[in-house]
Specification:
The structure is a single chain. Helix content is 54%, strand content 0%. With 116 residues, it is mainly alpha-helical. Helix 2 crosses helix 3.
Length: 116
Amino acid sequence: MKKWIFKKPRKNRRAAQRLLAQKNDLNKETRKNVVSVRISDDVMSIIDDLITSGHVNSRSEGASYLIMLGVKSHYSFFNELSKEVVVIEEQRKKIKYLIESALIFPEKSPNSRLIE
């Protein structure tokens, strides 16, 4: 039987909500995840200005700071998105169950014949 692969639900549901609830400064958040991205020269210049001003200590911290600003400024959008993702994940579970249950053949009864 072919195994169907579905995206696993994210453990960090309501991430935007948790970020907003934290008391620390934007650039002092605990950061343990690494993401490699390409950015424009303009964004790099902004990050470098943040470093020069002493607001952040590194490009990594500057990029994290800008991302946090974006998340905080669009909190309601990310909150709604998170709710819709929960609905989508539930629908995927239902679809997976429907597919798997349709592919499992019932046991043969003594009166049934194979159609050739």
